[in-house]
Amino acid sequence: MSQLDSTLKLLGITDTNIHAQDVRDEFHGKGAGRKKYQVLRAELTYTLTRCPNCGFDSLRRNGHKLTHIHVDGPTDRPVILELNKQRWRCGNCHGTCTATTPVVLANHAIGHGLAMHTLKLARNSLPGKTIATVTGISTNSVQRILDAHIHPHASRRLPVNLCFDEFRSTHGTMSFICIDADTHKAVKVLGDRLNKTIKQFFLSQYSTAERATVKRVVMDMNASYQLFVHELFPNAEIIIDRFHIIQLIGRAMDQIRVQCLKQLDGHSREYKVLKSLWKLFHKAHPDAKKNRYLFGLNEYSTEQNAIDIGTSAFPTFKTAYETYLSIHEALMGHHYRKLNHLITNYKPNGTVLDTAMTTLRKNLSGVVNAAKSAYSNGPIEGVNRKIKELKRTCYGFANQANMFKRIYQLTA
Q: What is the pTM of this model?
């Protein structure tokens, strides 16, 4: 009996009213779902004289009720607790009652410890089928546990600094996500990214005074969000994410580089630099002192020398490269006055860079605020990365509500 009591402790069962009697191995299920379980037979009994229904002291023992409870085991083998529960019958109201235990809720077949273990596995972005295989319960039981313990809701307190972004949820739908820029906790995930839906949420969930406390809203250059930000948050300033600013100028520079490539001989040094060493043009501080062998150019050279070879033949590309470096330096160095001067005094030269600079000029206040502030969309991009990983490991979701529950578990 002492060994069986130790087995109960190993399973995390500390209820002294449960007395273990036997341990055996059994196969349960049919076909591919047939598994080997470790079955622990035990009895649950204690003294009870007062009826919980009528309150009279007239209870009499009335046999036992055999139940099978899935519990969390110490190994990868699933464990079933075959628990024989004591029953009583009342001589006054003729009702019956059954013994209860903290191990499992009444009328449930999955122990509390196993339910918590299931939630931990789900937090690691495992798919429901894998969780069911590990725990020895069905996929539907896994989903019922998630439904019972995860209740997505909006943040009760509206943060002072917000991050806006969108992600692809189910069936190609783009959904909206908002998080706290300081704590990185989710504020709300919405089923779509329509302005009407977003405005309705913030107007219905938070008062005018609460929305007036918001100081910053960090976002990409999505023009639709900027249409309602000041309507919802009158005292907030818009901050354009620095990554998207650099990405915009970098893509324009790459398009000009490709256009220059088409005008060169495929065996020239300029072609080799622009074709194979394109990453050098995105470096903020290329090395101008150390010679090293540059694959693609196939000769020893400094990074700065290779850049000079690529930009010397095309003044338009050189202008784009210098503009990219200047904006990068001003933005990352928080030189907002210099950044403002670069954007407002840019002279068009008939390239795709003109379009990129026009876009920055339209979002000038948000771009300048990006240089002033230390906030960025990095936290929400990290959350989106977790969402992509969740979708990939779970092979996608057919039910958007179930997906949002898993997202809430990751970000709450």
A: 0.84
